[in-house]
Amino acid sequence: MSEQASISKGIATRYAAALFGLAEEQGDLETLSKNVETLMKSLKDSNDLNILISSPMYTRDEQENAITAIAQKMGLTGIVTNTLSLMASKRRLFVLPTFLAVLNDLIAVSKNEVTAEVVTAQSLSKSQTNKLAKSLKANFGKDVRINETVDEGLIGGMIVKVGSRMIDTTIKSKLNSLQNVMKEVG
Hints:
Blueprint: H1 3-25, H2 29-45, H3 47-54, H4 60-74, H5 78-89, H6 96-110, E1 113-120, H7 126-140, E2 143-150, E3 158-162, E4 165-168, H8 171-185
Parallel strand pairs: 1-2
Antiparallel strand pairs: 1-3, 3-4
Helix pairs in contact: 1-5, 1-6, 2-6, 4-5
């Protein structure tokens, strides 16, 4: 990990731990979880929001006013809105994606959950997602939250990442493996 990434992770972790602690004190982790999901989706979908949090062209006040208005429009809780406002006033909004990931991890640990990053060639049906979640729960002994992404370049199969473990059952991977075996033989 680069030094800059390490510093960003440290900043994000401190803000996330503080916000998580406040939400836990108030017994409002479920609402916090929904707020985190809303913000993550917005970051994924909005190029303008990404520019706002990372561009040095905006002043502290402009960033703070904009992120506060956005948070209120999204219906985020007061503690989340205040945390985002504080981050903007300290010029720390650039760590927002890492902040949300750390918060997501803290919430998952408190619920005895793990998050599985699943990349598939085509979107999974609801029943396929449920079967995968049950299978992963049997292996990891925890409830599994699935974040699915579609990558049509995989041809077929899926890649599942849970923590530091990765399972790659894609056809692309199998073809690459077969190609390597053929190179060794010939």
